[in-house]
Structures are given as C-alpha cells and as structure tokens.
Amino acid sequence: MEERGLRVLKNDTTFFSKFSSTLTKLLIPTRIGINGMMINIKRNSAIKYFEQYISADQSNDIAKKEQLKNRYEETYTLYLESIDKHIMDSIYKKVKNNTASTFEKDALANYYNVVHLKDTEYIEYKYRKQKFLLDLDYQSLIASNKERMLKKFEPIYIEKIDGIYKGILKNYSIKLADGLKAKRVNQTDLYKKIFETLEDYIKNILPIKLKIDDEGKYEKILNEYEEYEKFTVGKLDEKDFLEKNMILLGLSRVLFTHSLPLVAAEQCYNKLLRDTRNLISATKNAEKKESAYRMLLKLIEDYNVKLLSTKVFWDKPEERDNYKKFWEAYSKTNSSDEKEILSLKRELYNTSDEYEKYADIRKYYKNKLVELGAMRSLKNIPNKNMKGCYKKI
C-alpha cells in the first residue's frame, strides 16, 4: 500500500506539474498583451509631455517649462519601468518555458549582462540599462511596422539616447584621466570601449538623426560618415581597423565635443598614432607599408588640425611654442609635399623623447625626408655612437 501510495503521489505531482506548465504557457500571451498595452500607454504619455515641454521651451514662462519638464521626466521614468516589467513578467517566463524567440532569448541575455554591471560599475549600469530598454522598445516598434508611432517616438528616443551616449563617454573620459594619473584602470580596455561606443552611435543612431535632420545640422560630417560606411563591409585588416577608428574619432569632435573632452580625445589620437607607427615598423610588404604610411599622414593632419589647433591649455610651454611654429607653416602651405615634410618633422619632434623605442620608424621618416629633398643622407660616418646619419637641408 505504501509503495502504491508513493506511485499515486508521484503520478499526481507529475500531472499537476504538467497542468501548471501548460496553464503558464496559455497565460503568457495574456500577460504579454497586458504588458504591451501598458507600454503603449506609458510611451504615449511620455511623448505627450515631451511635445508639450518642447513647445513650452520656446516661451518665456519659466515656471511652466519647469513644471512640464518634471512631468515629462516622471512619465519617461514610468515608461522605462513598464518596459522593465515586460522583460521580467513576459520574456523571462517565455524563456523559462522554452517558448521564446531567438530575439527574446538574446534580449534577456543582454539584459542580464547589463544588470551584472550594477555592483561594480554603477554609473555605466545606469546608462546602459536605459539604453537597453529604449533600444528594445524602438526595435519592437520597427518589427511591428508601426510607422506612425515610430515617427512620433523618434524625437524623444533621439533626445534621450543622445544624453545616454554622452553620459557613457563622459564616464569613460573621467576614468581615462584618472587612469593616466594613478594607473588604476586598464587603459587598453578603456580605449576599446570608447571606440566601440562611438561606432555603436555612428552606426545605429546617426542614420536616424540624418533621416530626421530638416535643418542640415550634419551636412559638414556627411563626407566623413560616407568614409566610415566603407569600413562596415568586408573583413578589416589592422590598417583598416586603425583608419576606421581615426574616422570615428574625427566624427566625435563634432558629435561629442564636451562628452569626449579634448584631453580624452588627445589620448585616443596618441593611441592611434602609437599603433600606426608600430604597424609601419612591423609591416614588411612595401605596398602595405606605404598604405599605412599614407594613413599616418592623414592621422597626423587630423590630430593637428581637428584637435591641437583648438587646444588652449598646454602643460609644457615649449610644446605649445613648437606646435605654434608648425601650425603657422602648415596653414600657409598648399603643397602636399611641403605638408608631408612638416608632418614628418613634427613626428620626429614628438618621438624624440623615446628615441630607442621609435628608432626604426624615425629612420623610416628620415628616409622619406631624403626622398622629398628635405634631408641629406650622410654616409661613412666614423663615429658609430652618433644617433643618426642624416643632415637637415
């Protein structure tokens, strides 16, 4: 009887377990429907107060603007919370019951990757979670072909997502500055995160901004954006990868002037210069070496024109004076050969403090200057301890 009772109990438990599982699967669509409806309501409310806030921003009624701004922020917070609830109530249960789509499985995995940051990187977690929730809803609108709602939603999406990316980059910039002083962070990882964030923005957000840009705000970066697009297809070698990052950094000087401040951008340019010098030194193929060298010249130009020409505060007065002389000469010449000579001389100056480290690339620069007629090669030098066998002309 005892054995029989155990068998009955076991069978009953299995039955109720199956029944419960089946019931949960049946209820999931209802829960999804409720959550989806709540998201729509909260989204519409956020859009409504956002539009009112933007309209009031044109008036002189400061009190009204402040009131609408607070209301807009409240409804935006409730909107994000409704998406968060949808993930926990619906997607989580669908994944658990093995009824989720690939998109939903990936969404939940990405969600937990973001949540994982909470204990160790709270500031980044705060921005990344907002970004994840906004992107999830935006992609769901695209997938559902709700063109009318998408058009109404895009202004608030762009306004919020812009602030999120700026916050993420500013956080990285502060860490980079702190790391340079105290070596508390892995700088290589930070550089990687900065470039990845820039690419993510330019790949996914900038096209939306270009689409809704009726005032032509971004016309001056269209050529650079088209150059970046060339690097989004096919397999990239190291030179292509560095060139793509150079373009991303150039675009950042327009899109993220304050969020990626000059100090951080300068460090990113210096990282690219170091990597490109190493690439030229390591490349044996003459054609590839020349291609990397031509890219270096463009990088030097970008660094000096887009960044250093706007630099106000210099740590060392002699560096400022040296750059001032370079810039005066560079801005006056239209000859490509003269600009190349000035760029190479600038590079020789910038690598002079690390002579041994950059011995190979410095020799390469001097050979280029000889070819350009700006330096003369001296042979049969009796003193082997001399640092070079070249003479300026």
Put the structure in a nutshell.
The chain has 393 residues and is mostly helical.
Which stretches are low in confidence, meaning pLDDT under 50 for 5 or more residues running?
1-13, 15-32, 382-387
What is the CA-based Rg, rounded? Answer: 29 Å
Judged by helices, strands and strand pairing, the structural class is mainly alpha
Discrete helix count? 14
Can you list the strand order of the major beta sheet? 1-2
Q: Could you give the order of the helices and strands?
A: HHHHHHHHHHHHHHEE
- Overall 3D shape: elongated
How much of the sequence is in beta strands? Answer: under 5%
Write down how many β-strands occur, each being a DSSP E stretch of 2 or more residues.
Answer: 2
Description of the structure:
The protein has 393 residues and is mostly helical. Helices cover 76% and strands 2% of the residues. The chain is built from 14 helices and two strands; from the N terminus they run H-H-H-H-H-H-H-H-H-H-H-H-H-H-E-E. A two-stranded antiparallel sheet has the order 1-2.
Please give a handful of descriptors for the protein shown.
single chain; 393 residues; mainly alpha; two-stranded antiparallel ribbon; 2% strand; elongated; disordered N terminus
